[in-house]
Structure formats: structure tokens, C-alpha cells
Amino acid sequence: MTINLRTFKESDLNRVLEIEKQSFDYEYPEFLIKSLHSKCPDGFLVAVDESGYVLGYIITVLEWGNAHVVSIAVDKDYRHQGIGNLLLDAIENHFFTVYAVKHVVLEVRFTNTVARMFYYKRGYSDRKILYKYYDDGSDAILMIKKRKGLLKDYPIYINMW
Question: Which of 120, 108, 119 has the alpha carbon at shortest distance from 70?
């Protein structure tokens, strides 16, 4: 199977919402996904097969000189095939190169060890525990990946909407 990445199109919305729903206990609503796309269109990528069927997506925004991965998910039937790596590689390369961001940041549920291991393998590190971050009162971990060659530590600011 050939997997291609491209920017999100309005016609992808229902499929993205479907993957979001199957991937998370509390999925983002349609209006928020649309808003994030309008805020940073080049940070919203989809992975598609040869027929254009959406297999996964990543939503990233620029915040305070950093790239903030808001959501990344792959259809449950296509996981463990490298799609998440392709999406994250593309976002990291784009934001580190085009925008010269200092960090890529994201939050992950503290209990989601599978996702945390995925990010650790990709060079992310724990920055801070975010207590009661999720609607159900669960904690998150703020994870960061520093741009290669960054000579000093810079403060990290993120919007905690």
C-alpha cells in the first residue's frame, strides 16, 4: 500500500471526525477542528491511500514560537504501519525548517503508555505533568522535542484552552 500525505481539505472532515471518535474517549468537536484548520492550514495533514481514503491525520498549530501538536490519530485498522511516524516526521520537518520553531510540543494522557513510548522513541521528553488536564480529571504529560542545534533552553509557552 502506498501512503501519501497532503494538506487537509474540507471533504476530509467527516473521515477525520470518524477517526477522532474511534481514537479518543473525548473527541474534538467539528467546530474546533475547523477552527484549528483555519488557524494553521499547513499544520493539518492527512495520510491517504492510493484511492484518497483518509487513514490518519495530524493537527498542529503555531503557538509562542513552538509547534503544538493538538491531535494525531490513525484509523484503528491501519495502526502499526508507520503512518503516525510519517505524519509526525512531516510536521516536525515542516515546522523546524519553514518556521524555525524551537520545539514541537504536545500533551498525552499520563496513562497512555503506548503513545508515550511512541513519542519517547521519536526523541520527545517529559517536560511537566499537567494535573487534571482532561475533562474527566485525568492528568496529562507535556512532552517536547527540541530542534536540533538549539544551543540554549528557551521557555515553553502553550495555550491551555
Answer: 108
pLDDT for 50 equals 96
The two beta strands, 125-130 and 103-109, are unpaired
Q: Which three cell numbers stand for residue 155?
A: 521557555
Q: Answer yes or no: CATH 3.40.50.300 is held by domain 4-146.
A: no
What residue type is 120 in one-letter code? Y
pLDDT along the chain (161 residues), means of 10: 95 97 90 95 97 97 92 96 97 96 94 95 94 92 90 64 49
Q: Find the helix or strand (DSSP H, E) in which 119 lies.
A: helix 113-121
> Which one, of 154, 161, 148, lies nearest residue 71 by Cα?
161
Burial of 91 (0-12, 13-18, 19+ CB in 10 A): buried
